[in-house]
Every structure is written in structure tokens, then in C-alpha cells.
Amino acid sequence: MAYISNETCVPTMTSNTTPSGIAFASSNNIDAWKAFDRSGSNWSTPSFSSVVGYIGYEFANKSKIAKYSIEQTSSSSTSTRMPTAWTFEGSNDGINWTVLDTQTNQSWRDFNPEKKEYTISPINVDYHKSYRLNYTARGSIGSITHVGELGMYEIVYDTKLLIHHGSVYKHYSNNQWKLLPSIPTEDDYMAYGMDDISTIPESAWSQLQGEVELCYYTDDPTKTEASFNIETDPFTLAEEWEDKEIKIIEYTDDPNQIESTITIETEPFTLYDELGDSVDVLYYTDDPSKTSAELNITANYSPLDELEGDFDVVTWTNDEEVIAGNRDMMLTYDALPFEQLIVQPTDIALYGDVKKVVATKVTENSPEGILRMAASFDSGLTWKTYRFNKWLDLDIQDTTLFKRKGMNLDTLNAIPEKDLIALTRIAYYFDSSKHYENSYSLDEVKMVVDAPRHAVEFRDMSLQLLNTTATIDLTFSGNKLTGVLDDADQGKVKYRVLLNGKTYYPADGNFTRLAASPFNIELNIDERNVNFGEENTLKVEFQDYWGAVDSREIKFIGSYSGLMFMDESGDFLSDTFGGILKQLDYGVIIAGQTTLTKKVRIKNLLGYAVDHVYLEMDKKFETDGVDVQLSRQADPFLPIDYLTYGLIQPEDSIDFYIRIATDIHAKPNPNGNFEMKVTADRV
Known about the structure:
By secondary structure, this protein is mainly β. It has five domains: 3-156, Galactose-binding domain-like (Jelly Rolls, Sandwich), CATH 2.60.120; 159-218, no CATH class; 255-450, no CATH class; 465-557, Immunoglobulin-like, CATH 2.60.40.10; 563-682, Sandwich (Immunoglobulin-like), CATH 2.60.40. The protein contains seven helices and 39 strands. The strands form twelve sheets. It has a five-stranded antiparallel β-sheet, with no helix packed on it. Strands 27, 28, 29, 31 and 32 form a five-stranded antiparallel β-sheet that branches. Strands 1-11-5-8 form a four-stranded antiparallel β-sheet, with no helix packed on it.
């Protein structure tokens, strides 16, 4: 189960940015890291600084902090320097901060350093990138604010893995694969699930032939997806096919086809790439009149190659056509410059979705040299190349890798529209081999963009772009939010959900990606984030392509969801997750007797209709001589092993009756219990 780590998740800092993340402070920011160095030193503000300020840390990746600590490390008289009132806050942008915990009137000892820990309550369910201690008071006569160590402790969730192979579930233990007897339950994942599959040797994986599925379990309620990294040794087809005969079998039902053509594409190369820069040429002739031999080598060179760094070419002309702007002035040189990495410095200004990226060469007769391109979707922070019909990460600073894995013109021009969403920048690599005789020039890269609106009206010979605000139709039932987000002008829409003023979906607090309208919303609200028996506020903010924002609020009393068991007084007997809230207490049962009948109600709090309801006692609780009997009615009680019901609409309920019958030989059990289970099909 989830627990709070006992070790601070902030690394031991040696500067504000090493080994990772960023330490920061409102004053004396240069030494902010000393609050996270675990060396017994202190972070201190300058003398007579403000009593209001903050000290914090920005993680490389978002973290969910559930506890923090403040340590007084100096053994001198520091009680007047330590913060005495503060808020502990989290943020994802460094601008908007959420208060997670508030403390006032805290006191510290002199000459006896201490460490205080504070658990955030209610538990912080949001991930934040930055956390800070925002202090508003310190010791009464202190002129310096002093923090020895600031620790942060995150929630650790259980994650377990099982292998599904050959229609059975497996786990690896004691150097062998072991089978599970049935479809795994949550208990099975906890008992047999693997924490780390990277330790499984390759020899064990080779025993699993055919399709292998990785089954992932976590108790993190905010986890929506899992990813796995599978590493293989780098290889090329040439390495795999070396010294092997390759046969390509082609099938066609074209009766007119009489031959096939196979095209194999390799990286551009020259003779010098194969032989190197030092070559001996042996010359033989039987011409008796030949007394000498001559070898001509054509190399690509330009005086511009001698100029290091950036330079400007200044030109002058008295051509009236150029001066008038009717003709462009062009500079052409045939030598290919040293290799270049050109990165687009600013984002592409887009007012719609990129349908296509088209790049063209200056002429079709300039094939020499190598041009490679990469794309960025986060303003140049990271770069990607398109291979195998998907985007892969690429380090463009590694020019050898860029040259080998970057996109060529054909690849760039063939990328489908769906894979170009949110494109912001393009980078280019030009080759510089001195043996190429011609340059590789890029004529243009153009973006083909869909206009963000489709509703256009002509009126009085003027063009009007119409925009209607997006609309939403929402229903909340059984802790399930359903609805339709629409825009009358058929523009794209996006939304986000807040629960009780806090970000719920998406977890990072941003809107979802723009999607075509109408867009169906189906979102389950985790009961662990709901205030039970109190009023909750569910707010859905939505936005159209123009940026117009609107919102809808739904208020509801927190309750459980599912097919819920209740007693005849209306109290829940169990929660959504199977936990027991209240028991049907039959008291002491004497062997040979039958108990009184108790009424139980099943209420449909799923938020949708169900059919084929099937109710029975859980077999694993059966006891010899004790029979838990079910009946549709109390009088007469007609015992049956299971009950079935038809269609049950949301908020509807059905009643049934339970009693316990024992025979005279039943063995005594001071803690006897039973559980009922119910299944149904969604309509």
C-alpha cells in the first residue's frame, strides 16, 4: 500500500543546480543549496533582511510531497533566527502557488539543535514541480532568517508487474518462471507481483516464445498510463544480413506485371569515405612511349572555409531592378561550407493545426551533400526525429547522430497531419565533406496550416470570421462525470476539471489538447478525493480555438459509487473499494438453529443502468455446517443459493433477505463471517 518515504527526495545539493533540480530563495539565492546539502551548514539571509521570504526547491520531474521537515543544525543560539510562522506551498509554474500546510507560533531551542516534521493534511493528492517554505515570521530579536535543512518526503505507491504469456499469468522467482492458478486479484499482485523486471536475465526472457504482455498494477489513483523501456543492442540490417543470402518474395495478383524492382537506399558516400584521405595510386601501362603519369584530384574548397565563426557578406549594386525591389540579389558559391547545425531561434507562429511540412531543394540537380532535419514540440528544449512512423528523441548536438538519424526531405514531406500537432521549431544539419563538388542548398520550408475556423460568411462584400463560444452538457451520477463538449462553428475544443478548487484532470493543471468537436467526456471521480457527507464542487473549464473560456459547476454530496450494499436503515455496509464499513451482526448462533432474517438493499450508484445482476455468497467464506441463505422475500422465506435481477436504472435499488441456518454438528467459530458479492453488465 502507499506510504510516505522516510528519506527526503531532494538530492544532496552541491550548488543551486547540481546534481539535479534547482534550489532557490527570495534572498541570498546564491547559497540556497545550503538548505539541501546535508552537511550541517545553514542557509542564511543577509543581516537585517526582511522577515518575509521563502526558500525552496524545483524538482526535475513533478513529485507528490506528503511531508516536510525543517532542521536547526547549528548548536549555537539560533532560536531567534529560525522561522516561526510559514506556509508550505507547491507550484507548477513558479508563479501560482497552492498552500499545502500552514504553521504558526513555532518555537526552537538554543544550543540544542532539533528537527521538526510536518505531515500535510489532508494528504497532498497533486503533483507539483516546485515546493517552498514561505515564512512570515522569525524569532523576536533575530536579524537573520536561518534554515539548516529543508527536507521533503514524497508518497511512495506500490507498483507490481506480472507477465501474461501463453494464456497464463507468471512471475519470476528463484531463477524460474512460476505460474499463477487464476486471473490475478489485487492480493495476487501484492503477493506475487515483481517490483523490477530489469533483473530478469536474458536467458529467462528467451524461454517466452510468442506474444508476451506486461501487466502493471499500482495503487496510485492519479496514474493513467504506464510505459516500459526495452533496450536492445544497436544493430543495422547490414550487420544482421552480413554474409547471408537474402531472398525477397513478392506476391501480386496483377496479371500484367512481368518484373519487379527492388531499391536499396544507403547513406551517401564517396570513394574517399571508403579509402580515407591518404591513398597510393599504382599506375601501369604497356605504352613504350609513356614516360610519366599524372593524377588529377578535384577537391571542394572555398576561401570562405578559412573564415571561422559567423560572418556577413556585404554587397553593392547599381542594378535599378534590384534597387526597385523587382529582382532579388543572390549570392552563389559552389563550395560546401564546414558542417553546420542551424536551429530555428523562435517558435513558428501558428493560428491553426499544421497539416503538412514541405521542404524543397533549390534545384533537382544538386543532390550532393547531406541535409537532415529535426523537430521540436517544446520551443527547442528537446528535439525529435520521425522514424518507424513515430517521433523518437534525438540529441541534435551529437552531429554524428543527427547526420545518421535526422529526417531527410522525403521523410519530412511524408509525415501525416496527426503527428504534427504542436510543432514549434525545426533544426537543420548540413554535411561538410570536403570531397563533395556541389553544394546542398535548401530552397524553403513551408507550413501548410488549416485555418482554425470553418464558418465563413459573406456580407456586404466583406469577409467575416464567425466564432461561437463552446457549449457543454454535463451529467454527474455515481461519481462519474459524463457529457458532450461542442462548438457550433465546428472549431476544436479543450477542457480541464477542478475538484473542490484543486486541479483534478489533467493532473498537471493544463487544459487537454485541442480535439475536434463534439467531444465526449467520460471521467470517473476517485472517491478518495471526495469529501464524504459534505458538499463538493466539480468545476469544468472549457475553451475553444479562439481562446474563449467558459465553465460549468456541479455541486454534489460526496458518496460512494458502484453497486453498493446497504442495511435497512440506509447505512452503507461496504465502500467502493471493498472495505467493510458495517457488518450484519447476527450475534451468538447456537448450532442447529436458524437466525432471524435481515433485509439488505443493493443500490445502483454506478451512474449508468445495469442488467443481468447476479448475487451470491463469496465461496471462500463457506463453513461446514453453516449455510448462508438468500431470499427475494421475507415471508415466506424461500432459500436459494443465488439471486438474479434484470434492469436496474441509476439510483434505483433492490431488496433481498439473508439468514443463517446451522446444523447440530457445526463447529464453533468465535469470529465467523461471510461476504456477499454482486456482478452485473453495463447497459
